[in-house]
Amino acid sequence: MNFSEVFKQSNQLCKVSPDGKYLATCVQYRLVVRDVSTLQILQLYTCLDQINHMDWSSDSLFILCAMYKRGLVQVWSLEQPDWHCKIDEGSIGLVSSRWSPDGRHILNTTEFHLRVTVWSLCTKAVSYIKYPKACQKGIDFSRDGCYMALAERRDCKDYVSVFVCDDWHLLRHFETETQDLAGLEWSPNGCVLAVWDSCLEYKVLLYSLDGRLLSTYSAYEWSLGVKSVTWSPSSQFLAIGSYDEKVRILNHITWKKIAQLDHPATINCTKAVVYKEVERRPAVGSDDLSLHNITIGTTLFNTQSKYEIRPLPVQIPVVKPDPDRANPKIGVSNLAFSSDSRFLATKNDNMASVVWVWDMQKMSLEAVLEQTSAVRCFQWDPRRPRLALCTANTKLYLWSPAGCVSVQVPTEGGFQVQSLSWHCSGDSLILLGKEQLCLCYMDIDQEDK
């Protein structure tokens, strides 16, 4: 692997363009656009205030920068740097801003979720959508960009409206059988809309495009319910992570449960490989303790780590949540399928330092990665079955069916990886620290072996 030099960034705002050519980063109120291959600065834009949110249009030609405190959105063009656009929501305020799939409309959600305003960059026309619901995931676009599903709340009831993105006309509007709708998500093939209830009621509903209820799934009652939901890229599986520390897999034909994935404190599964991160500090000789070395201190006191395979049975460290505090650290909060739908990675919040990898063909546990610190972020390579993760230290971790590796990020000043994201080619990773970022380039020869 090779690593780039370190660059500044603010608020973890750093995104590769959808076409994979550019890297946009925000530094306070500045937007910096670089060439991904050379990291040379191509454009530098100055916004009116500190940027809270940044996003690329689908065709990589425009970038929006939202300044929520001011109720402002500024849009910049890569092809015409002199062209600029400013959207001011005024006193009604702004809590979120996003592109429509065509990259020519911007959807702004106003404060208190009073309405969603749709702004057209081409015609300057404005449309208003009323009653958007304030929830975890209240808007979702189908993968082909044709439809938008919006969660609504009116007269103390939950509804879903499906809009056609070409001209924003209403295609379907139906009431959902939820007490307090928490989120919705289209299947990747755009045929089914999954809707789930708040954690107080275990309920997942599956609707067709025309608003018919296809199926309802509930695993249990009278206890905290759904915590996370995700589709497999193939649309064949719907994975539901729950507060009872289990993942339930529904199939796309009967919408019945075909598997239940447990996260036990003791692992006895003989098919699974348990990798444990082991740390060791390098031995320091008296010659190394010169004032010069301590001052420079680049790698002298860095802790090195590697993975060891642990013999079964393995005891997993579990943290008991405080029952008196809101949002208890328990249950499956993170679910991610590999791009080929072969593997599912999960994280159970009361085992914060552990990532579980499941084989979806065998519906069994494939590997367990036990880290020395809590896992902050994990993400699959978009092209290969390869998982990258970070734990807010100076290392990057990778898992593939071939094994596990721990890599020291060789930057000065102790760059701590808080989050990461893959380039769409899978050939590089963007590593984000608190106020810095660097790129990690994969060795192509190594991948093909």
TrEMBL record:
* Cellular component, GO, one term: microtubule organizing center
Q: Which Pfam families match?
A: WD40
> What Gene3D superfamilies is this protein classified in?
YVTN repeat-like/Quinoprotein amine dehydrogenase
Q: Which domain of life is it from?
A: Eukaryota
GO BP annotations listed: lens development in camera-type eye; retina layer formation
Q: PANTHER family from the entry? A: WD REPEAT PROTEIN 8-RELATED (PTHR16220), WD REPEAT-CONTAINING PROTEIN WRAP73 (PTHR16220:SF0)
Would you tell me the protein name for this molecule? WD repeat containing, antisense to TP73
Recorded source organism is Seriola lalandi dorsalis
Question: Taxonomically, what lineage is the organism?
Answer: Eukaryota, Metazoa, Chordata, Craniata, Vertebrata
